[in-house]
Amino acid sequence: MRIRRATDADAETVAAILRDAFAEVDRFYTRAGHAATTPPAGLIRERLKEGPVWVAEDEGGALVGTVAAVARDDGVYVRSMAVTPAARGRKVALHLMRQLELFAVSRSAPRMYLSTTPFLFAAIRLYESLGFRRSGEPPDELVGTPLVTMAKPLASRLER
Predict the structure, then answer these.
(1) Phi–psi pair at 127, nearest 5 degrees
(2) Is beta strand 141-142 parallel, antiparallel or unpaired with respect to 145-146?
């Protein structure tokens, strides 16, 4: 598996990964919440301007996962984490999150944080295994779909 930065040319595939990854749980989202979670390629291209997006390539070169980051004053926000159903169980998400953490540490971010839905049990287990904990911070919903916010403090350069 190879993790690399996404380019504009990957936008259609990243959008397809998001649609594929969330298709099995779309009934738990509001229509608008699902649309926000699975943006079209044009919005993915806009996100590439806001911060890095990474993709995971399998041994055959197919893209099977993605994650995006936005550097903010209070830390690095993790968004759009997704792995295709066919690639689950191969540690794709773990590799993507490690790449994102390297980015956050390189920016001297005090923490990484994300919002997820309470019904994405496997994702929550992954985040908890990586040191994320529920923070109680907003947002509590995404256009009517419930959310929980999780955060992971990062060691400062002086502590390392």
Answers:
(1) -60, -45
(2) antiparallel
Quick one: DSSP state of residue 131? T
Question: Do residues 89 and 41 make contact, with C-beta atoms less than 8 angstroms apart?
Answer: no
Buried/exposed code over 4-39 (b: 16+ C-beta within 10 A; e: otherwise): eebeeebbebbbebbbbbbeeeeeebeeebbeebbb
pTM, full prediction = 0.92
**What would the pLDDT profile of 3-49 be if each residue is shown by its tens digit?**
999 999 999 999 999 999 999 999 999 999 999 999 999 999 999 99
Phi then psi for residue 122, to 5 deg, are -65, -40
Hunting for tokens 């995404």 — which residue is that? 142
Assess contact for 150 and 134: CB atoms under 8 A.
yes
Query: pLDDT category, 93, cuts 50, 70, 90?
Result: very high
Those residues whose C-beta lies under 8 Å from the C-beta of residue 46, and which sit 6 or more positions away, are none
Structural domains in the chain plus CATH codes: 2-153 (3.40.630.30)
What is the per-residue pLDDT across 56-78, written as a single tens digit (0 to 9) for each?
Answer: 999 999 999 999 999 999 999 99
